[in-house]
Fold this protein.
Amino acid sequence: MQTLRIAWTIFVKDLRVEWRSRETLASMCVFSLLIVFLFNFAFESAREETLRLLPGLLWIAFAFAGILGFNRSFAGERENACLEGMILAPIDPSAIFLGKMFANLLFLAVTEAVVVFAAALWYNFSFLPSLGRFALIVLFGTVGYVALGTIFGAIAANTRMREVMLPILQFPISFWILILGTDATSDVLRGNTAAFAAGAARVAGVSLIFAVVSYLLFEYVLEE
Amino acid sequence: MPPETSRAEATLELRGVSKYFGDLPALRNVSLRIGRGDSVFVYGPNGAGKTTLLRTLATLARPSEGTALFSGRDVHENPPAARAAIGFVSHATFLYGELTARENLKFTGRLFGLREPEKRIDTALELFALRDRADEPVRGLSRGLQQRVTLARAILHDPAFLLLDEPFTGLDAASRENLQSLLRRLPEQGKAVVFSTHDFDQGVTLARRLVAMEAGRVRYDGPLNLAPLDALHIARAH
């Protein structure tokens, strides 16, 4: 309970900082919209091709937007050694992980909503028939991706080449989420409801493993 | 914050602590014990290991060799117990630029689980003459004002051990006097104060104990008025 209370405090602090600076969410949205926009011009696709390309394109946009967000999330903590300031408090380190993860999750979820809306317009594609199942797949995948991004963001924040280091750490591990997420999204958008449960279970399973491992390892990342 | 009973016995201690950054030794076999009411002035030239010493006491740096203890137990076995009793001011401010001074203190108060944080925040703001600027984002404050907020942050939870690394940085004359008065007052209340400053004359007027450091070693640790000439010479020479 105490851990959740502290996590909530850190989450609210991150929202307040973002509300004042408006740096993270804006850059995530603009960057991911650019990806979707440029792909739209690069592949002027017919509906069948759109169905083939769109799942991968969406997950690529989510992945890159996430990297931007995770970098920004810990850049703010690095400035004035604020992360050390939190470590100096008598709190469970996992509360820091949860607080930062919840904030990253919210920022990426908002970005994903914006991207999906833009993709629906630009690709003239309706997500409505499968919106619930699609949202569930994206949510499952995003949780695991954000958990990894939060722990790798904290690791990369202490390195010299932090902007480069984060994707180098993040992508090789999280490609499982991206591949399974793309497959499951593809099935959902094609209306293949029979494959939905298995796809969703695979994405949720991998995400759960990544989230639990990240949660358990975070305190070691904070050590000097 | 620990209860008074445990506070009475609280000690911060380093036993045979060495700290290396790669092959570079920052501390070499340092042993030190800080107890109730201690007022310690850590002095030495640049690179002597003062900052690493304070960071190790504050639990931020883990010894490469030896042990850091809080009330006789390794601090890294149960860091929250030690951290609840420590207030630390380092070269960095630990402040979020987008938040106001009051919001920064409120955030710290919540992390430390303070009861009646508003009252304590008001007291801390008052102590460092920050009330008029309390609702401005920290990013817009001068370095001196930010340092005052940092000091207010460090004392907010009424720590038994106040560790200050160059706390006078950027402070104007009135704020320096405020801080000096606090550093004299806290040991009388049973709190321990450990601070470093490059202003030797200022340090000796505030502390009763000198820890003179050179090249990562403690060259002298004892009462200021009994410090041998060579220890004072090391200190004064730099």
Remarks:
- Chain B touches chain A at residues 58-62, 79-81, 83-84, 86, 88, 90, 92-99, 103, 107-108, 110-113, 137, 153 (CB under 8 Å).
